[in-house]
Design a protein that fits this description.
alpha+beta, about 300 residues, about 25% helix, 2 domains, 6-stranded mixed β-sheet
């Protein structure tokens, strides 16, 4: 049973047709199901333990659902989905400055301490919060019964909020966070965006069947490096977009200005280009000849002209 390239489980069916996961044993060196996409979450039954049996039970439910069999209640679906992260940078510990104030050092949140982190619903952000710059963290607490009672702190603003798993929206000082049940439902219908369906169209959440490679056309070449120290923060939610941990290494010989924009500008009559851009003829002539390069704002302006004329 495969959801995407890194989300899969191997199973057998017993004499009654019920699925059984392939587990570590005589013929297997390890359990044959993936934790990718769930491994950053705490065990909701035993947050202090290393047992990942809850993920196995989640996979069994997914497989049984696909086979048209009844599923079992896991018992933790309504709990807020909470992960554990480490205080690994000044940006993570900074929101706890007020909480640490006046406390002995031994009682403060310190570097390399554990913290809790949770995931806000798409429409669950508190009123006035910027969804792109809002992430809740809290001092580590091992009891799931206390997670809803904690004061959570926005990593960006340092403001304190409460969390809830009720309703669909947040309030002024309350964030609506995802539950384990909601995370698992999203997990089951995760789209494999790198592949195409049987008809060659991009795969979606409801795509079923044997997938194939998508056909792509190279538009531009960029050299990037994934900052490996931050990839765990992306998975845990501390960083919301993977693009934020990419470092781009520009090559002046292959950048968009040289390969696309400047050649396109040469095809536009100079008089029309002057009228559309508001720039001087002499400046445009120098740029088209490659003897000068526009500043960022003019570069965006010229790129917009090229896109508008579809050259």
């Amino acid at each position: 049973m495969a959801i995407s390239a890194k989300r899969y489980a191997l199973f057998l069916r017993d004499e009654k047709g019920s699925p059984t996961l392939l587990r570590e044993g005589a013929n297997n060196k390890e359990d044959r199901w993936s934790e990718h996409g769930l491994g950053h979450l705490l065990n909701p039954s035993d947050p202090e333990g290393e047992d990942r049996e809850w993920i196995a039970q989640a996979w069994l439910n997914i497989i049984r659902d696909v086979l048209g069999l009844s599923t079992q209640t896991l018992g933790f679906e309504q709990l807020p989905a909470v992960g554990r992260v480490t205080v690994s940078s000044p940006a993570v510990i900074r929101p706890f400055a007020k909480l640490n104030e006046g406390k002995p050092y031994c009682n403060q949140i310190k570097p390399f301490n554990f913290l809790l982190t949770c995931h806000v619903n798409p429409l669950g952000h508190p009123l006035g919060a910027d969804p792109d710059r809002f992430h809740l963290i809290a001092p580590y607490e091992s009891s799931p019964k206390k997670w809803l009672k904690l004061n959570w702190i926005d990593q960006y603003s340092g403001k304190r909020y409460r969390i809830t798993t009720q309703d669909d929206y947040g309030a002024r000082k309350i964030a609506r966070v995802k539950t384990y049940g909601e995370i698992l439902r999203e997990y089951e219908f995760h789209p494999e965006s790198k592949c195409a369906d049987a008809g060659g169209k991009p795969s979606g959440k409801q795509t079923v069947g044997l997938l194939q490679r998508r056909h792509i056309q190279i538009d531009q070449i960029k050299y990037i490096g994934k900052e490996s120290n931050s990839l765990e923060d992306v998975e845990s939610g501390l960083i919301h977009f993977a693009q934020n941990v990419y470092t781009e290494y520009p090559d002046p010989r292959r950048d968009e200005w040289q390969t696309k924009i400047r050649p396109a500008l040469k095809k536009i009559p100079l008089s029309r280009l002057v009228k559309m851009s508001g720039m001087s003829r002499s400046a445009l002539k120098e740029m088209r000849a490659g003897r000068s390069r526009p500043h960022h704002r003019n570069l965006e302006l010229l790129a917009g002209i090229v896109r508008k004329l579809m050259i």
